[in-house]
Carboxylesterase type B domain-containing protein (Dromaius novaehollandiae), 216 residues
Amino acid sequence: MRFLPLALDGVFLRKSPEEIVAGKEFNAVPFMIGVTNNEFGWNIRSLLIQRMLIFLFLLSVIMDGCLGDTDDPAELWDRFLDLLGDSRAPTYYFEYQHWPALYWDTKPEYVKADHGDEVSFVFGGPYLAGDICLCEKNLSRTLMKYWANFAGNGNPNGEGLVEWPSYNLNEEYLEINLKQKKARKLKEKKVDFWRRVIFEVINNERTENKKVNSEL
């Protein structure tokens, strides 16, 4: 609860969220969650604060693993964003990828689908925006169908829609663009980097610190 205050009033919330989750004391409600492929791509610099950075001794490893050796500013920006950005209830996961045409004169080309860009399509925005291409209106209609189906019965799938698999051990999700398709293991290589390389560096650092402390 880092962003919003929490009040344990003993009536609505009788235990802390940590205790509730650990004890699985919650309803098995279908859940939909997703990201865009360029989360906060436009204003990341204004939101990044020093205390959000991880331990300094990891920075060189992260830079090498995520940013690589390119000098192209747009490519570095994109890689930097990628760096940052069980109750048995069905979960549906998506990655929204379409860059809205209405941003053509307000955001640079390298910003792809930014934070919240899917919301206007869910609520039919392209039908209210004037001279918008038919492809974006069709995308909006598709998203409205998915979201309406999910709100109605807990499953976004329906007639005429690309199958949206529930998220499970296969790690399947839906890529949402002008054309939708199923995919698996979002950013698998980058996830592996954080799980394997970073943990290895942390463990090595802890081992070295213990060695130094024992010598002292």
Summary: The two ends are 39 Å apart (CA to CA). The beta strands are 31-36, 91-96, 172-176, 181-184. Helices lie at 17-22, 44-47, 59-67, 73-84, 117-122, 134-153, 188-215. DSSP finds seven helices and four strands in the chain.
